[in-house]
């Protein structure tokens, strides 16, 4: 166990701070209830464990969207970290993520209610905003952390009042930052994006790859092969040559 230093902060990590053998099997814990984030990892060949952080996002404040999403990502990863009991024969990684939309100088998380979601879409349609997703990756045993923010510009379609009402009534906008998705019902209402689409979904795989590299790991170390029927998971990438 020990403290890790990063960007002027000190965080407690449950683990042996220092050298960790490359031969240990890897386990990735996703500190998020988002099924979209989990699907992104699975599509990239990674089968994560999921442990919801329980962080109250409404209590965290920041002046800039980038600062807010990164602080929330840190808090989520740390909250899950304190509930883990990592084994000596396994290298556990925890990744926390959070997304917010910067629009018209405001920071927009999840809408408070349908009326709030409706007002947002009436403002956003035909315009653009920037979706920021904070990522915090912690190597539990080594006591090391890597973190960064990915940002993508989103151009919204000029949708009608009826489309806004129908979309809000679906309930989807109430569950996501910025009141929209690109991988669900909201996809047709986004004209285009500038950047990584995974950022908008909530987890940037290229950024995750770079954060793993900071911890001396390869994203291929996390690849798994799921047998037909999903009965077994065979590690594919955790072999050093």
Automatic annotation (TrEMBL):
Nucleotide-binding is among the record's keywords: no
Gene3D superfamilies tied to this protein: 3.90.950.10
Taxonomic superkingdom: Bacteria
InterPro entries associated with the record: ITPase-like_fam, Maf-like
Swiss-Prot/TrEMBL GO biological process terms: nucleotide metabolic process
Pfam families noted in UniProt: Maf
A Gene Ontology molecular function term of the record: nucleoside triphosphate diphosphatase activity
Catalytic activity: a ribonucleoside 5'-triphosphate + H2O = a ribonucleoside 5'-phosphate + diphosphate + H(+); a 2'-deoxyribonucleoside 5'-triphosphate + H2O = a 2'-deoxyribonucleoside 5'-phosphate + diphosphate + H(+)
Needed co-factor(s): a divalent metal cation
Active site (record annotation): 98 (proton acceptor)
Keywords per UniProt: Cytoplasm, Hydrolase, Nucleotide metabolism
UniProt-annotated location(s): Cytoplasm
The protein's Enzyme Commission number: 3.6.1.9
Chief place where the protein resides: cytoplasm
An example Gene Ontology CC term for this record: cytoplasm
Entries under HAMAP family matching the protein: Maf
Function: Nucleoside triphosphate pyrophosphatase. May have a dual role in cell division arrest and in preventing the incorporation of modified nucleotides into cellular nucleic acids.
NCBIfam families: maf (TIGR00172)
Protein family per UniProt: Belongs to the Maf family.
Protein name: Nucleoside triphosphate pyrophosphatase
Protein's organism: Micromonospora taraxaci
UniProt lineage: Bacteria, Bacillati, Actinomycetota, Actinomycetes, Micromonosporales
């Amino acid at each position: 166990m020990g403290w890790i230093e990063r960007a002027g902060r000190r965080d407690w990590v449950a683990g042996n701070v220092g050298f960790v053998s490359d031969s240990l099997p890897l386990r990735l814990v996703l500190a998020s209830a988002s099924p979209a984030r989990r699907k992104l990892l699975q599509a990239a060949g990674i089968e994560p464990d999921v442990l919801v952080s329980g962080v109250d996002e409404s209590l965290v404040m920041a002046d800039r969207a980038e600062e807010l999403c990164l602080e929330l990502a840190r808090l989520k990863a740390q909250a899950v970290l304190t509930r883990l009991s990592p084994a000596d024969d396994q290298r556990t990684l925890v990744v926390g993520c959070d997304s917010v939309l910067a629009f018209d100088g405001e920071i927009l998380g999840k809408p408070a209610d349908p009326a709030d979601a409706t007002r947002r879409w009436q403002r956003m349609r035909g315009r653009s905003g920037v979706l920021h997703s904070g990522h915090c990756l912690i190597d539990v045993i080594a006591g090391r952390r890597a973190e960064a923010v990915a940002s993508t510009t989103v151009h919204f379609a000029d949708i009608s009042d009826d489309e806004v009402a129908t979309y809000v009534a679906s309930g989807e906008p109430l569950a996501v930052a910025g009141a929209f998705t690109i991988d669900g019902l909201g996809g047709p209402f986004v004209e285009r994006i500038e950047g990584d689409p995974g950022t908008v979904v909530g987890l940037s795989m290229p950024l995750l790859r770079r954060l793993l590299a900071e911890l001396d790991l390869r994203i291929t170390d996390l690849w798994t092969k799921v047998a037909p029927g999903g009965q077994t998971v065979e590690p594919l990438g955790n072999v050093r040559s």
